[in-house]
Write a structure and sequence with these properties.
Elements: H1 9-29, H2 37-60, E1 69-72, E2 77-79, E3 83-85, E4 88-90, E5 100-103, E6 108-110, E7 114-116, E8 119-121
Parallel strand pairs: 1-5, 2-6, 3-7, 4-8
Length: 122
């Protein structure tokens, strides 16, 4: 079994673009005249507004999901009245995985039990 544990790429992209937007905005606004207090207040509110927008989008991307699962090149699973597993069995009580990829799994044979060479949610 090979497990591929990665962060949700959509959430990572939201955080990256938000950080980039804040950095560019702060860089552009740093060239403005800082003489007047109302300009400083405008700059601070704009930066905070972009950060709040990013945080809101981050929260709206979707519910948290489990880690991504990749199962590959498993062996043979044979069961004679019990359980045999050469893949991955996720507990039923956990959140479903983010994505599941299964390739090149072995043969599964069960005689009065269950056999798994790929992925199964408990």
């Amino acid at each position: 079994m090979t497990g591929d544990f990665t962060v949700n790429s959509g959430r990572r992209a939201v955080l990256m673009w938000t950080g980039l937007g804040v950095a560019v905005l702060a860089g552009v606004l740093s060239f403005l005249s800082w003489d007047r207090a109302d300009q400083v207040a405008g700059v601070v509110s704009a930066v905070v507004g972009v950060a709040a927008l990013g945080a809101g989008v981050y929260g709206a991307v979707g519910p948290p999901r489990g880690t991504d699962v990749r199962v590959s090149a498993t062996g043979r699973a044979t069961s004679r009245g019990g359980d045999a597993n050469t893949g991955f069995v996720a507990p039923a009580s956990t959140a479903p995985p983010g994505s599941v990829s299964v390739d090149g799994t072995g043969d599964a044979e069960a005689d009065g039990g269950s056999a798994n060479t790929g992925f199964r949610q408990g």
